[in-house]
Structure formats: structure tokens, C-alpha cells
Amino acid sequence: MINIILCGGSGTRLWPLSRELFPKQFIKLFNGQSLFQETLQRNKGICEQFIIVSNKEQHFLALDQLEKLQVGSTRFILESAARNTAPAIALACLAVDPDEIVLVTPSDHLITETEEYKESVKQAEGLARDGYLVTFGIKPTHAETGYGYIQSDGYDVISFKEKPDLETAKQYISDGRFFWNSGMFVFRAGTFLRELETVAVNVYEATSNAFQSSDGMDPILIGRREMESIPSISVDYAVMEKSKKVKVIPSQFGWSDLGSFDAVYNEFDKDEHGNTLNENYINVDSGKNLIISDRTVATVDIEDLIIVDTDDALLITKKGSSMKVKEVVNQLNEINSSLTNVHVTTYRPWGSYTLLEESGGYKIRRTIVKPGCKLTMQKHYHRNEHWIVLSGTAKVTLGDREVIIRPNESTYIPISELHRLENPGKIDLVLIEVQTGEYLSEDDIVRVGDLRDK
């Protein structure tokens, strides 16, 4: 069996923890691992191979977190534009043998009770071998308005339901035949593609054309023009709600899509007052609060709040209202704020950089380059740069000469000078980068060479 992992995401529902270039599946919320890593760990005992479908900008994040795991064969399909789950699944199915059984899972769901999960997957695999498209319905524990529902009679699907209001959700719970829609599937790759061609031929044809346009290399990169030619549609709308071959496995393993901070609060350990555990939290007569911060946070006489503190943004909301975080993101996008896109720390294929300070005419960053990695040859038209090595060894190309910079040593890169930074050593290269000039935005870069290094 092959695990198709859907690794997209816009980073809006858990802002400011998540951002467009650092969505929630990469945040290490539980046990020092990200949800993406937990997905791989959970399924490596079930599946021999993995296909990860990701936005190309998140490829390096996934690779970095993969390095810390021991899993089976892994391939990537990189999308240059997001087109929702139906095209993403179809692209992965086109990359495997039509008779292969695939387990399709999001990368950002929390699943507990692993043995029950594996048993449900085993049941689904049996139905998939009989030619069905199989999904998983989670037995609801409460009236939830943030999930879609599946109405079923045993393994037979009666209907799919959109996210309900609270009163309708209560009716579903009372009925007893409704399950949360998990967004996970098991089927033969060829069965899915044939059903997609039957019920959504425009999606099938556009996706097939986009896949055939790629060079077939690993990773498989689908160009922006080809991706944008595909209709954007979810797998439920495109296939599951129309197909006559759908079955559902009623399941009771612990599951959450962590679609809001209220859902995150439910999963965190808490103290005797109902506050989430945090060694930096000082509580005075406060209870039932979610506190996420690396700094000291103190509360006095408050209840039912969500406080999420990052290096560059602070979110405070009442519990029960955290779904409105999307409205905050919308307002930030309207003013073109970078706060929806990146954190103070930005991850690249070669390492990362962290903004330490920025003011008129200067910017200070801490840059980390992983062993054996290098940046592209580049130059800037509006800024000078001064690099100070803190640890490791830097190999710096300046025009037609190369220099080695060691700890406590530095170098200067003037405006328009072609330069390149490389780590030839065995440990991380850590340096302080001071930029000065009238224009310090990231688009003041002219790259020369292999853009995959950037």
C-alpha cells in the first residue's frame, strides 16, 4: 500500500502559529514532532511507500523534517499553484500503478488510538480491493460545527453533509447515523481515476495533461500554467458525492483536524484549573485558558481565553470564537502584510534565516547554512552586506575570488558584487548578516546559476 500525503495548506486557521509558508502540519505541537512527522510515523507500519503532494514552496520544509525520520521510499509531487484535493489526489494516482492500493491522508490531522486506526485501515483495504472508494467516518463525541458529516447505514453512504449550524449538529448526534467526515480514503489508484473521468471529466483531463507535461523526475514538478488550467475542487465535490462506488468505515479512533485553536485546546494537557500546561505561564485566579508562548505570560482573573504569542504577532480571542482568525488574516492580506506569509524565521532548502532587528536603512539577521549546502551566486543593487561568522566555516565567493571565513572573522559584500555563501564543513554555519541600504526587501536579488539552491 502507498500512502498519499496531502501536504498543502494556507496557514490561516492557526495564525499566528501557522503562515502560508509554514502551515500547521509543520508546527511541532505535540511530543516534539510535527503533525506531518506523526503522519509518516503512524503510516510507516502500514505502507511501504509515500507520495507527498506539496506546494513547491513547502518542499524544503518537508525534506528537512523527513531527514529526522526513518521511513520507506518517499517521492514528491510539487504543485506550483494550489487546486484543492481532487487534483492533488489525481496527480498522485497518475504516478503509480493503476492496481496499487493507496491510503490518502492529510498531513495535518491528529490521530490517537493507533491500533484502532490500523484496524480501520485494514477494513478499508479489503473494500478497496473489491473496487470501492472507501472513506472513514469518525463517531462524533459532541455536536461540532467545524466538520462535515457523513450519513450512513453500516458501510453504505446515504449522504454527505456540509458543516452544519449547532442545532443541526445536535440533530445529527441524536440521530446516531451521522459521522464526522475525516477526509481520508483508501482505493485502487485506477478506480479513483476512472470515477474521476466519469463524474468530473474536465478535472480528469486537465490533471492528466498537467501530469504529462512534467519531466517525470523526482520530484515531479507541475508548472504554474498547467496547474492553473485545472479546476479547483475538493475530492468530495468532484467524486465522493457523485460516485456510486463509495463505502464508509465507521471508526472510533481519536481524531481531530485541529482546525481551530479551540480544537488545539481540547488536545493539550491541562492543570487543575483547566489552563494548558506551559512552564512560562503565571496564573493568578484564572482558568480554562489556552496559552501558547515561549515568553512569560501572566493572567489575572480571566477565563476561557486563547492567547497565542509569537516573535512577531500576538493573538487574543475568546474560546468559541477562534474560527474568526481567518478574518484577521483577511485584513492583514488587504494591507499586504508579510505576517500572513512568513515567520520571523524563514526556512530555505539550504537552512534558515531569522530577522533579529530592522529599522530605517538597516536589517540584522541570523543565518544558518546546513553542512554541504550553498546559496546561489547573486548580487544586490540597493544594499551592502556585512557577514560575521559565529560558528562553523564559511566559504565565500566574491567576484572571481574565494575566501574562507572562520568564527570571529567577517567579510563585506558591496553593492552589485557577485557573491555566494557556502558551508564546506561538517557542522552548521551560523553567521550574523547586517544589511544596509535604502531598499532591503527580499526581491532585491539577482540570482545567477541553479535556482534550486536559492
TrEMBL record:
It is an enzyme of class 2 (transferase). It catalyses: alpha-D-mannose 1-phosphate + GTP + H(+) = GDP-alpha-D-mannose + diphosphate. Residues 280-332 form the MannoseP isomerase/GMP-like beta-helix domain. Keywords: GTP-binding, Isomerase, Nucleotide-binding, Nucleotidyltransferase, Transferase. One of its GO terms (molecular function) is GTP binding. GO terms for biological process: GDP-mannose biosynthetic process; polysaccharide biosynthetic process. CDD domains: cupin_PMI_typeII_C (cd02213), GDP-M1P_Guanylyltransferase (cd02509). InterPro entries: GMPP_N, Man1P_GuaTrfase/Man6P_Isoase, Man6P_isomerase-2_C, ManC/GMP-like_b-helix, Mannose-6P_isomerase_type2, NTP_transferase_dom, Nucleotide-diphossugar_trans, RmlC-like_jellyroll. It comes from the Bacteria. Residues 3-272 form the Nucleotidyl transferase domain. The keyword Transferase applies. Gene3D superfamilies: Jelly Rolls (2.60.120.10), Spore Coat Polysaccharide Biosynthesis Protein SpsA, Chain A (3.90.550.10). Residues 337-450 form the Mannose-6-phosphate isomerase type II C-terminal domain. Belongs to the mannose-6-phosphate isomerase type 2 family. This is mannose-1-phosphate guanylyltransferase.
